UniProtKB/TrEMBL annotation, chain A:
Coiled-coil region: none
Gene giving rise to this polypeptide: COQ6
UniProt family annotation: Belongs to the UbiH/COQ6 family.
Localization in the cell: Mitochondrion inner membrane
This protein's pathway: Cofactor biosynthesis; ubiquinone biosynthesis
Protein name: Ubiquinone biosynthesis monooxygenase COQ6, mitochondrial
Molecular function GO terms recorded: 2-methoxy-6-polyprenolphenol 4-hydroxylase activity; 4-hydroxy-3-all-trans-polyprenylbenzoate oxygenase activity; FAD binding; oxidoreductase activity, acting on paired donors, with incorporation or reduction of molecular oxygen, reduced flavin or flavoprotein as one donor, and incorporation of one atom of oxygen
One matching Pfam family: FAD_binding_3
Topological relation to the membrane, as annotated: Peripheral membrane protein
GO CC terms: extrinsic component of mitochondrial inner membrane
UniProtKB/TrEMBL annotation, chain B:
CDD domains cross-referenced by the UniProt entry: AdoMet_MTases
Binding site for S-adenosyl-L-methionine: 83, 108, 131, 182
Native organism: Neohortaea acidophila
Reactions listed under catalytic activity: a 3-demethylubiquinol + S-adenosyl-L-methionine = a ubiquinol + S-adenosyl-L-homocysteine + H(+); a 3-demethylubiquinone + S-adenosyl-L-methionine = a ubiquinone + S-adenosyl-L-homocysteine; a 3,4-dihydroxy-5-(all-trans-polyprenyl)benzoate + S-adenosyl-L-methionine = a 4-hydroxy-3-methoxy-5-(all-trans-polyprenyl)benzoate + S-adenosyl-L-homocysteine + H(+)
Subcellular location: Mitochondrion inner membrane
Its EC number(s): 2.1.1.64, 2.1.1.-, 2.1.1.114
Protein name: Ubiquinone biosynthesis O-methyltransferase, mitochondrial
Pathway given in the UniProt record: Cofactor biosynthesis; ubiquinone biosynthesis
Designated gene of the protein: COQ3
Length: 515, 304
């Protein structure tokens, strides 16, 4: 700049020009390139974001929307492991509603069915009192099960027996599926329908509103989120969807508060080997026991595999994770089978010189299953899949709202739920389903799909529902984490009462299923 | 009001017009509910416009809140999706040329709630939107700038004029398929000449579609007393209950028009009721006592 000489007269003339023209004379190089206009930009290529896009691409009304998805990871490679004997420790228990959604948007056909396991019943019992409840869809179709299920953290089967949702196998309560298998099916579906710009291996550099417009006419993007990529490419989004996880940058951009708390607990997950293998057509059962340290759940996978989810205090989780794999497997058996006092002793002394296997082998024959409430069908855990033990902190977060002008949050960006309830993925898919429906309605009625008029319905549909599920999971977690006698008595009474009143169970199941 | 032309009012968006009318009503009127006659023989002033200037001022004052999601136009926004459902119902009652894109003329377009939405639909050729209030039209134009789609050439054009001032179409091809008068008639002193002026812009087989409020004790209670005075969801002075029109009065007028087919499928009606928390819901037969949509079809072949 210094090398160029301007005559004073030229400078004076320039100064007389309107500011906008002046600026364009001097700053053309500095002005960022015009952003590309998109109808929808989704940040985050997890199951929630992918299922939203595959839904929109599969519907005639929304097929022509210009959409893009941004994710820092590589979305092109299939992420399903090919080893049939090894399963990911990140599994979800898909409700029939989730399954329906995945079928309708065309992704379920692409999920590897050999790695999926439906289950047909669930045994839930109290670790202190032995009170129990069995959920059996064959006994009472469509009802109480769900109501209770929603109340039980770790139950993983909300909305499991919905009439009409269970076309394929009416007896299936929920379906275990590795998260990466769901993701892979969605990615293949999106590839099949095409039309989604995949900006993977790409970080979002910044999100900000467009510039104030210059002049009285022409495009005004000052209310539009503009996403800048590392390549300096910029995308203007009519609707910016935050499917970008618990620390959502989109949520931060929209200045939406997310409140919650940590439980000072960790959830341990692992893939387990059972001592006998199930055939494909066997009826399978999920098991859950409420221990004062936190619930423990065993969910079936194909063959002799099962998925473990066990929550406990952070120090205890650290200790159990450090055990040799064989001792860990023994500990899981003990946690399901022993009386509270014996289990307590083992947990306290695990990691010292205690021979856990030996302890279990003499304590077990002296334990009455009538006292523990252990279901007779409970399998024996033979081993832990190598390298599959992992843990993550349990926390509860809920965004104050899911929508702002031109912004919508789905999945973990909107809510982080107590993971033991296993509802995280289901809630994310339900969010995507609801938002997709709102967008279809908006497009069919000429709405700006980024406007609050279009998005209000999504927030109204999902926020209160998720808040209720989260609140109940949280309260039940607290309820079941105590061994104080009156509380144990009351809660066991509740479980036993519901279990013995078959008609009540059926009625409740019907009420919940018919909604 | 006499020193204003009426054309300003008519060209206002229907919501504004309603609001303006309400203000007029605030001045004491002594008239009792009586039939409204559509005869053109009634005094139709030489100012050649249906616009009521009091209404124009009323809606000018409301212009800034037009697109505020929690503002006074909220009920109008919520009513917009049923408008499209009703238009579809009218259009689908007759066989149409498949894939043929539609031309719209929105009279009394206000801040552009309906005009924008019509312009976004994939089967729309173009939308012309007119309103007599300059403030309201400038709000609409400013809002249009926020959507690149609506800035596409010819997709959505606003004009600050009344229907009488709008040049007539030069051919049947450039006449419109759908002319809309949403929440407009209740703000107009002389509906018959106004509607006749509208008909001139519609192509044979096209539709005149609108919504308004029936003049009943119920509508006085809900739109004047409750909406304006008690709940305050609609600005006071928005409606002039005396200008409300009954569906049978509208139909009687339509039957007197030689180029209108007001029989069988050529006459469509849908009553809607605002249910707090649920939005506008279609309630069969509610057209006789509340808000309603009406559609009349211009005959396929022009009457000579």
């Amino acid at each position: 700049m210094a090398s160029i000489q301007y005559s004073p007269r030229l400078v004076r003339q320039l100064l007389q020009l309107p500011p906008s023209i002046r600026r364009s004379c001097f700053s053309t190089a500095a002005t960022p390139s015009k952003p590309d206009i998109y109808d929808l930009v989704c940040v985050g290529g997890g199951p929630a974001g992918l299922s939203l896009l595959s839904s929109l691409r599969s519907h005639a009304s929304t097929r022509d929307l210009k959409v893009a998805i941004i994710d820092s990871q590589d979305l092109t490679t299939s992420r399903v492991a090919n080893d049939p004997s090894a399963y990911s420790n990140r599994c979800s228990s898909l409700t029939p509603a989730s399954l329906d959604f995945l079928r309708n948007n065309g992704a379920w056909r692409h999920v590897d069915a050999r790695r999926v396991q439906g289950y047909h019943g669930m045994e839930v019992w109290d670790g202190v009192s032995g009170a129990k409840i069995s959920f059996d869809p064959l006994e009472a179709k469509g009802g109480l099960l769900e109501t209770i299920a929603e109340l039980v953290p770790g139950s993983r089967f909300q909305e499991s027996v919905r009439k009409g949702d269970v076309a394929e196998d009416p007896a299936v309560m929920a379906t275990m599926c590795e998260n990466q298998n769901v993701t892979s099916g969605l990615l293949q579906r999106i590839k099949e329908v095409g039309g989604v710009e995949m900006l993977d291996k790409t970080k979002v550099e910044s999100i900000e509103f467009g510039p104030e417009p210059e002049g009285e006419t022409g495009l005004d993007l000052s209310q539009w989120p503009i996403i800048t990529l590392p390549s300096s490419r910029r995308l203007a989004a009519r609707l910016l969807v935050g499917a970008d996880g618990a620390n959502s940058p989109v949520r931060n951009f929209a200045d939406i508060k997310s409140d919650g708390w940590d439980y000072n607990q960790h959830g341990i997950v692992a893939t387990l080997h059972l001592d006998h293998s199930f055939a494909e057509n066997n009826l399978r059962t999920a098991y859950q026991r409420f221990l004062p340290t936190g619930p423990i759940a065993l969910l079936p996978l194909p063959g002799n595999k099962a998925s473990l989810v066990w929550s406990m205090s952070t120090p205890l989780a650290t200790k159990l994770k450090s055990l040799p794999p064989s001792d860990f497997a023994t500990m899981v058996n003990a946690a399901f089978k022993l009386q509270q006092v014996d289990l307590s002793y083992l947990l306290t002394h695990a990691g010292s010189n205690l021979d856990i296997a030996d302890e279990l082998s003499w304590r077990l024959p002296n334990t009455s299953t009538a006292a523990t409430g252990l279901p007779p069908s409970f399998p024996n855990i033979a081993a832990v899949q190598e390298g599959s033990i992992a843990s993550f902190p349990l926390r509860m977060r809920h965004a104050a709202t899911y929508t702002r002008d031109r912004v919508a949050l789905i999945g973990d960006a909107a809510h982080t739920i107590h993971p033991l309830a296993g509802q995280g993925l289901n809630l994310g898919l339900a969010d995507a389903n609801s938002l997709a429906k709102q967008i279809v309605y908006g497009v069919e009625h000429g709405m700006d799909i980024g406007s609050t008029w279009c998005l209000d319905g999504y927030n109204a549909d999902r926020w209160a529902a998720n808040n209720a599920v989260m609140g109940v999971c949280d309260k039940l977690n607290k309820l079941y984490r105590t061994d104080s006698a009156p509380v144990v008595f009351a809660r066991s009474l509740g479980l036993n009462l519901v279990n013995s009143l078959s008609p009540l169970k059926g009625a409740l199941m019907g009420a919940a299923g018919g909604k | 009001m006499s020193h204003f032309t009426r054309r300003g009012l008519l060209s206002l968006p229907s919501g504004l017009r309603s609001l303006i009318l309400g203000r007029i009503h605030a001045a004491p009127t002594t008239s009792l509910p009586q039939p409204r006659y559509f005869s053109t023989s009634s005094a139709f002033h030489s100012d050649h416009s249906s616009v009521n200037q009091d209404e124009v001022s009323h809606f000018n004052a409301l212009a800034s809140s037009w697109w505020d999601p929690q503002g006074s136009s909220r009920l109008l926004h919520l009513m917009n999706p049923p408008r499209h459902d009703f238009i579809r119902q009218c259009l689908n009652s007759h066989i149409r040329e498949p894939g043929k894109k539609l031309r719209y003329l929105d009279v009394g377009s206000g801040g552009g709630i309906f005009a924008e939405s019509a312009a976004r639909l994939p089967n729309t050729h173009s939308v012309t939107a007119i309103d007599p209030s300059p403030e309201v039209v400038s709000v609409a134009k400013r809002h249009q700038r926020q959507d690149p789609l609506l800035l596409e050439q010819g997709r959505l054009s606003y004009r600050n004029c009344s229907i009488e001032e709008l040049p007539l179409p030069t051919s049947a091809e450039t006449a419109v398929d759908v002319l809309t008068v949403f929440e407009v008639i209740e703000h107009i002193r002389q509906p018959a000449p106004f509607l006749q002026a509208c008909l001139k812009h519609i192509k044979p087989g096209g539709w005149l579609i609108g919504s308004t409020i029936a003049r009943t004790n119920t509508s006085w209670f809900t739109t004047k007393l409750m909406a304006e005075d008690v709940l305050g969801v609609v600005p006071r002075g928005t409606h002039d209950w005396n200008q409300y029109i009954q569906p049978h009065e509208l139909r009687a007028w339509a039957r007197t028009q030689p180029d209108v087919d007001a029989e069988f499928q050529g006459w469509q009606i849908m009553g809607v009721v605002y249910v707090p928390g649920m939005g506008w819901k279609e309630i069969p037969s509610s057209e006789d006592w509340g808000n309603y949509f009406f559609g009349v079809r211009k005959k396929q072949v022009e009457a000579n």
